[in-house]
Amino acid sequence: MKRKRGTAWVCSVLMAGTLLAGAPQEAVYASQEYPAAETEIETAQVQEQEQEKSDSVNMTSQKVITVTVSEGLEYLDTFGDYLKVDGVAVAGGSVTVMQAQTHTISILPQFGYEISAAINGAAVNGTEENGWMTYSVADADAYEIAVSRAGSSVYTVAWDYDGGLGADACVSNGTVKIISAVLPDGSDGMGAINDQNESGGHVVIAPGSVVTVEIKPDYGYQFLAGSLNGQTVTAGAETGRFTFIMPDTNLHLSALFTPAQDIIQTGSAQVQSGRIANGSNAVDTGNLKLEIEDAAQTESAAVSSEMQQTAGEDQIQCYLNMDLYRVVNKGTQNDAWEDQLTELNGEISVTLELAEQLQGTEGTFYVIRAHQGSDGNMTYTRIQTVYDREAGTIAFSTDKFSTYAIVQEKKTDDGNTGTADSEQTENTAGGESTGTVDTVSGTTAKSDGTADDSADKTVSVVAPKTGDDSSLFAWTALLTAAVAVVLLELVRRKRDCHRK
Q: Which of 57, 186, 228, 350 qualifies as a FRET site for 436, CA 20 to 30 Å off?
């Protein structure tokens, strides 16, 4: 029993020792965890210190550079940012950029200008990027820039009709077309690009060339400015043609077309004033000018016989010379090209205000036109008018301008005029009378008193020529036959009566 108890005691002592021996080992393990936490904290502190050092380094890597333009500022587009270093706009003569061994200086020239630059006294080569000239230069604390104009062998002229290129390149209410460009030595000054169409134009031209340009206002407009974007133009001999000297710069063209009215000039005692409508039927540019004068006695005598024959018993009130012109101004209000028009491609409406002695009179009026065609034949045409008694005006449509007579229709015993209001008659004479063509037109009046031909219907009837007696013989034969028939019928009835 004692031996057993001793053994148990020994085992207990050993186990206790083992437990006691294990406790310090766990404490050692636990104590090893604390240095690791301290290391993480120290690492974070080091990183923060390094970041602060880096920020400090970055702050010290920026620098302020002084930038000045000593020459050629007038060649630069100074309405906004026009000078940059490394993409940063220069303000107040300086700019802050990152330190570097080289920097990029960007300069914005005015539109159409080509420039060269010397930086800190040394000429530098540049490249164009979106309108800016860029130069690569070595690092320095200050840059002094001298700008000068650079020569070019060709420049461009550009314009459009929708405003896409800006107001200074927009042409409206007319068109522009470059015809030619000639250098002083007589050689062609036009470049490789000559793109002109309904959208606009882009033409390359050598500087110093004499440029011929057609400036064509729409009908109802005139070119009065005398310049294209400040570029003085000189009127040529041909209508609408101007010339200018191509400058050493690109050009945007914008032509200023001003609205203008047709012109009526009257020197007649029987016509006080007048007006024109539908002028675009006659011309596609500028305006019309109608001159109305009393025909000279010699002129009226040459046509009066035929006109009186056409008028018959109606009273001719006056003979008029009516001359029509196309007027296109030469870039000024006081000078213009005038081209006389005798025959038009379409009819225009003419309204004449009669003299007071003819206003308010009863009846109707028509005009007789005497016109010599390209074949040499003189044609006399009766044209019915729309007579506005209250306004004292007559209105009619015509496509030819020469000598006219105003005729008042004679009244018949029943108070009506002798002919239909819509009758139009042409007598053509070319050495001998060739006949008469009666044309019936359904002409009505518009609210403004002008003639409205929208519902015209024409029927032509050819009457016999002068000296042609075939109709007279036919009528005589017909009358003889009718008399014979009547006589035969009377004889037949008398015979029947005798039989009864």
A: 350
